Amino acid sequence: IGQLLQQPAGKIIRELPIYLSCNPSLFDPSVKNIQPADQVMLRGRLDAAIETDDGLILVDYKTDRISPEQVPERSAVYERQISLYRDALIRMGRKKIAAAYLVFLTPRVLRPIPAITTANAP
Fold first, then answer.
1. Measured in whole angstroms, how far is the alpha carbon of residue 26 from the centre of its chain?
2. Contact (CB, 8 A) for 4 and 113
3. Angle value at C-alpha 95, between 93 and 98, nearest 5 degrees
4. pTM of the model
5. Distance between CA atoms of 98 and 51, rounded to whole angstroms?
6. Mean pLDDT, the chain, as a whole number?
7. DSSP states of 11-54
8. Angle at Cα 14 formed by Cα 9 and Cα 16, nearest 5°?
9. Which residue in 91, 70, 120 sits closest to 102, CA to CA?
10. What 8-state DSSP symbol labels residue 120?
11. Of 43, 64, 78, 100, whose Cβ has the fewest other Cβ atoms within 10 Å?
12. H/E element holding 83?
């Protein structure tokens, strides 16, 4: 990832704003009688997206002060966030998403995120 981040500036999108309208039941399954206009707006910011021939590589930095042994458990907390970012980029018409990574800065651990999607994927 470090080598990819040294690519020419046109290949890296930094601080990419993410907007995604979601069905409220995605966050609260008990919600009933949802109308098409009833949406929850997800807003976030992806730290970096690197353009490659295979598609975008998503990178999100985490500043949690954890040990390397805690990374798998903490990654589970953020997997849904990066999956929603992935879905938003796909719905926004971006290229294919090639991979997604969480970068935990304090333990200096790079964690790949499996190719999961939410119910809102196209």
1. 16
2. no
3. 135
4. 0.79
5. 9
6. 84
7. GEEEEEEEEEEE-GGGT-TT--S--TT--EEEEEEEEEEEEETT
8. 135
9. 70
10. T
11. 43
12. helix 71-91
The pLDDT tens digits for 48-94 are 999 888 889 999 999 999 999 999 999 998 998 898 899 888 888 86
Q: Strands of 109-112's sheet, edge to edge?
A: 12-22, 40-52, 55-62, 97-104, 109-112
Q: Which residues contact 75 (CB under 8 A, 6 or more apart)?
A: 102, 111, 113
Taking the mean position of all CA atoms in its chain, how far away is CA 13?
14
**DSSP state letter for 115:** S
For CA atoms 65, 68, 73, 75, give the dihedral sign.
positive
Amino acid of residue 16: L
In the block, tokens 């999108």 appear at: 13
Give the closest residue to 11 by CA, choosing from 57, 45, 64. Answer: 57
* Rounded Cα distance, 88 and 82, in Å: 10
Question: How far is residue 101's CA from residue 1's CA, in Å, rounded to a whole number?
Answer: 9
When computed from its CA atoms, the radius of gyration of the chain, rounded to whole angstroms, is 15
